[in-house]
């Protein structure tokens, strides 16, 4: 680290990776005046993904070319240390100019402390983003948007095309198709589903993948937010049962399977499918370049509230501007560009993720398929996205409650009650 940030980093005792001199600003050109010599300005963009440093260097180089005199440095920290470091960094002018912000409930402490700038009147392109996408960057109390959403994470059943083909299985179009496919694989001594159990943060994800159509997706969420439905009502409780019924197709000793184990079972070809997020595609391809991957979503089971196959998804984070940045004007020009199709296209191509910028279509076929399916029939990640702005969060409660449920230590109703009782301590329905 160099310049005005060096004192902060020394105090934190953390070495940041100052990646490449790249130059962003606004896409309409022009250089910014700022703290640098001769009117040049250096912006720091802090983030929690160290593995993305080289990609961001390439992405920001495009903006540098259009904005002489502006340099940006992507400064990544360890993901499990980032939140603490960011809170400290945003407390004065020695922190970031632009920062990756966590989404939904995890954003709220920064909003409450006035650490980031409201962007509603600063970034015109936000008016084109879907409201559900902006929810990931919105302050719960004031309804303002504090970041430009950068990635959509969609949730699917990822499968091994070669294994499916070897057993004459096609992507299931009905609930009966799904069970027949998994039964065929199990009968051939192939683990149908590589499910994570001991890493409990994955359990709410799996529950959404298999249970979204049972409770009804956004239609049910709207009723929950209005106080007209709850986690303990039949549709939500039944969604837990729907999910757990797939345990007959998990690895034989599933109780001890952690996240890394589940990934390895799938990439090694010992399991035919993996329920998880679209981010796994790049991970799986890197682990085993020979894998032929496909994705599908779970058709509605009998009695489901939804008649269409729903695709759960959520906003992974956003880019926000520090309220204490000494180069706030230049930082705002940068995040305006980050809301543009030019940036969104570069983001999806370089990082193999789904950009949150509207109308950006990935050239990666599986990402494009995931985005098309989500756009057609989106469903929320309820516990993480909409009931995590207070303590205890629904996501933490669900991770705990679903773990006991799937291990046979509680019923579905008891797991749902655990979530609801915790949320009742702070959640107030919308008037």
* Count of the separate structural domains: 2
Secondary-structure arrangement, i.e. CATH architecture of the largest domain: 3-Layer(aba) Sandwich
Helices, by number, come to 18
Largest sheet: 7 strands, mixed
Helix content: 25-40%
**SS-derived structural category:** alpha/beta
Over all CA atoms, what is the radius of gyration? Answer: 22 Å
Please report the first level of CATH classification, the CATH class of the largest domain.
Answer: Alpha Beta
Task: Say how many strands there are.
Answer: 13
Shape: globular
Structure, described:
With 431 residues, this protein is an alpha/beta fold. It has two domains: 3-150 and 316-339, D-Maltodextrin-Binding Protein, domain 2 (3-Layer(aba) Sandwich), CATH 3.40.190; 153-314 and 375-423, Periplasmic binding protein-like II (D-Maltodextrin-Binding Protein, domain 2), CATH 3.40.190. Helices cover 40% and strands 14% of the residues. It has 18 helices and 13 strands. The chain has helices spanning 6-12, 53-66, 79-89, 108-112, 131-134, 161-166, 175-187, 203-215, 218-225, 234-244, 259-267, 280-287, 328-338, 341-351, 365-376, 382-385, 394-406, 412-423; strands at residues 19-22, 41-47, 70-76, 98-101, 148-149, 151-160, 191-193, 271-277, 293-296, 311-315, 318-321, 354-355, 378-379. Strands 6, 7, 8, 9, 10, 12 and 13 form a seven-stranded mixed beta sheet that branches. Strands 1-3-2-4-11-5 form a six-stranded mixed beta sheet, with helices on both faces.
